[in-house]
Amino acid sequence: MTIRLLPEGVINRIAAGEVIERPASVVKELVENAIDAGARSIEITLEESGRRLIRVADDGRGMARDELPLALARHATSKLAEDGDLWSIATLGFRGEALPSIAAVSRLTLASRAAGSDNAWSIEAAGSEPGAPTPAARPQGTTVTVADLFYATPARLKFLKAPRTESGHVADVVNRLAMCHPAIGFTLNDGSRTLLRDGPHEDAPAGRLARLALVMGREFAQNALPIDAEREGVRLTGYAALPTLNRASAQHQYLFVNGRPVRDRLLHGAVRAAYADLLHRGRHPMAALFVDLPPDMVDVNVHPTKAEVRFRDAAPVRGLIVGALKRALAAAGHHAATTVADDTLAAMRPQGSGAARGGPAANRGYGAPPPSHAPLLAEAQTRYQAPLDAPSARIESPPPADEAIPPAVEAGDGPPVAYPLGVARGQVHGTYVVAQTDDGIVIVDQHAAHERIVYERMKAALADTGIQRQILLIPEVIELDETAVGRLEARASEFADLGLVLERFGPGAVVVREVPALIGNGNTQGLVRDLADELADWDDATTLRQRLGDVCSTLACHGSVRAGRRLNADEMNALLRQMEATPHAGQCNHGRPTYVELKLADIERLFGRR
Hints:
Layout: H1 8-19, H2 23-36, E1 41-47, E2 53-58, H3 67-71, H4 98-104, E3 107-113, E4 120-126, E5 134-136, E6 141-147, H5 163-180, E7 185-189, E8 194-198, H6 204-216, H7 218-222, E9 224-231, E10 234-241, E11 246-247, E12 253-257, E13 260-262, H8 265-274, E14 284-285, E15 287-292, E16 298-299, E17 310-311, H9 314-331, H10 339-348, H11 374-384, E18 423-428, E19 432-437, E20 440-445, H12 446-463, E21 469-479, H13 482-490, H14 492-497, E22 501-504, E23 509-516, H15 524-536, H16 548-559, H17 569-580, E24 595-599, H18 600-606
Parallel strand pairs: 1-7, 12-15
Antiparallel strand pairs: 1-2, 2-6, 3-4, 3-6, 4-5, 7-8, 9-10, 10-15, 11-14, 12-13, 16-17, 18-19, 19-20, 20-24, 21-23, 22-23
Helix pairs in contact: 1-4, 2-5, 5-6, 8-9, 11-17, 12-16, 13-15, 15-16
């Protein structure tokens, strides 16, 4: 077979194959063009999920008559500097192939009226050379109509999914672009329903959160932590949800670089690292993060659809994301997502009552910032941040089994309003502490709450002076299979750094001589067996320092107040105060909530008093 030049039509269809995969690809390219044209309003209309018709209309700068044929020519663009500097890209698109690629596989009509012009013009193209511009009627801006997508390449139609699936892909593309540009109004209609409608927002910070709430849900806006940090010329803004508001997949993590939606493993990995010891495996936080940096620090030309980017130096970007998220989460203190209370109330309501999530309970103003408890938290830090080896730090000295639990005594002379988590009123089922606040009640899972407290103290101690040990009066011998004993023996020196001193004790057994002082009289046998099981899943080259969070989490779990243990009033109040003074106390080490707060108004609704 001899070498030959391909016909222009075949070349265009091949180029289209790199960019136009489905209707969503067309919408992405056209909406990006509208944004680059300075539009303040963009309207997208679909028929048959985009197979039959896609129309994108904007009120941007528009194009003059002579520019219309150029817009449909390959490698023609207005988005690059005349010197062709590919390291100074300040627009969403610059390849100059979107419109000709779309025209190669559809019947395209382009109508536009330039700013300041008295006339509008239209041009058509259908898989071949475009025709001549003809007069048209429309206000300033541009309308692109794409009909019969893939008519020139019918094989592509066989690979499209169900109409609802394709509409979902289009909605995802538009939502991501809308999140980037709250100052632009967006409307998306698929013929039978409106998938998105939101006007432009003038106030940038409030407008961004309002747009995020529209796309990601009101729950996210009510439980989002603002992020704003800068380092080495890179700025990070956006919002990240409290750990207790999480999802089963990472599809609710929206990441943007210089106003461009991207799916980048580096950025997703940084988010995962920031939440590493706050969420259980398999759960993912919700976040919308915007990275802005000089154009010459990022290459946006590494993927035909511009869905991926490459940073000149990725380390500062990753470090900025991890550090900013960790600081925001630490500043959130003990707060848990309001959805925890919503889920609790929904479970209490009778089926079919009509009161579902998002009803009255969802409108109680949870989005408002909590009142300032700084003076009281400082007092809690002083009064209840006991030394790491002190009995009060472990909430010990339980009452005898036959002793009645006395009623809780309010701390100080003030009413329960004095503390964010209120004052303990009792314990139920030996597991849950019930406290009264000024406008409701708080139910605390005592084991989950104390597990987080112990875990945070272990991390702080390890970073400061090291974890203090407690010598066992009678060393504990634990029988294991020989393989598990070998794994533990090989890591004995590393465990000693974490306060756990153990050694081989003959065949098939280890003896534990010292334990971390923080875990007190915990379940030593269960702790050692769990550690042995975890080591089996790790690579031999992995050090305990690398998996420090997992090890500390296991140690804290076995050293915390167990469910079923009865606490007296002072112990319950001490637990509440320690929670208020501990970072991330709203969730345990596995990402589950440690407490539920119910407002008095919601309780009254449950009993029909409102």
